[in-house]
Amino acid sequence: MSLTSLLSGRNNQELRDKFKTEFLTPSFNLKAELKAPPLTNNYGIVGTAFDYLLRFYLQHHNKDTFIQNNYWVADGSFKMLSRWLLLSTEIATGFHRDKVFQTKDLLTIITNQYEQTKVNYKNYVHTGLLTDELICNTIFLAKLDVYYRSGIIDENFDNYNHEDIKDIKSIISLVDNKNFQAKEKCYLNPTFGAGSSLVGGADADLIIDNTLIDIKVTKNLKLDRNHINQVLGYYLLSLIGGVNSNPNDRPIENIGIYFARHGELWTIPIIEFGDKQKFETFKEWLIFYVNNYPNNQKLRLLNMAILKEETQKEDKNIKSDVKKKNSTKKTSTESKKTKTVTKSKRAIEKKDDNS
Predict the structure, then answer these.
(1) Contact between residue 189 and residue 74 where contact means Cβ atoms under 8 Å apart
(2) For residues 60, 63, 67 and 70, what is the CA-based torsion angle, rounded to 10 degrees?
(3) Which of 61, 81, 141, 344 has the fewest CB atoms within 10 Å around its CB?
(4) pLDDT tens digit sequence for 167-176
């Protein structure tokens, strides 16, 4: 489970209705043309690749205020995939699993690209010089993300669509650095401590000073109800666990959505949705709801069953140990009795001999 799956789950209409009732959809008057229309239908890959590139961009422009957990989803994915490839000689890739690689060849491809990505990333953060190779690297990271989230190994780790590269360059060219220049703190991929743990994992796109911003690489300039639920959900999780590993760090006062293909940032103060008490009340309700979420109930029942089984095994082992000790003690006692009887018998026999 994650925040996204929780909010979109088909059995969670009550949760969505609660968000919609408690936090009314605000007016949205943002108007702008579509400045970077999609050039391919690789929407997911391009969107995720842009997320990575924007993080690199913001890290370069916010060197003094940059805060981030030193971890990419792609890092974990690379380790998982590398271990998996060591277990066989061939592997089928793609959604239809119709392109077969020798695992040693695929492992060489992803290892070389991963290492080169790390080098190019560090160079870009230092120099700010954008290259096609770096954009290819972000596409590679996006493909690793797909494996992490779905288990599907991309069949094109070894090549890139030039139209995707052109598309990402167009989108990043629209970023106005003034919208993302942090005065105090720039959080990239912030997590929410106990809040993230509550929903099985949650990390937002970024927080600039006191504004949480979600990135949307969509051609539609509209305020979707699901988008509002998501950013408000992140805010509520921050009330539970703070930001990153600091439960007392709760900087969010505004939420926003950056429409990347339009180059437009929309923001709104949290107070527009309700006061502190309203959010505290909703937070407590959310905790109760998630803790009673069917999947969590099953998990708790499973854990209880495992705990019960382990306890029974432990009790059985303790009883067995006690039984062995008692048996040993009994044997020892009987042995002592036998020795005493034998000793007494020998003494009597010796006395008879002396007589």
Answers:
(1) no
(2) 60
(3) 344
(4) 999 999 999 9
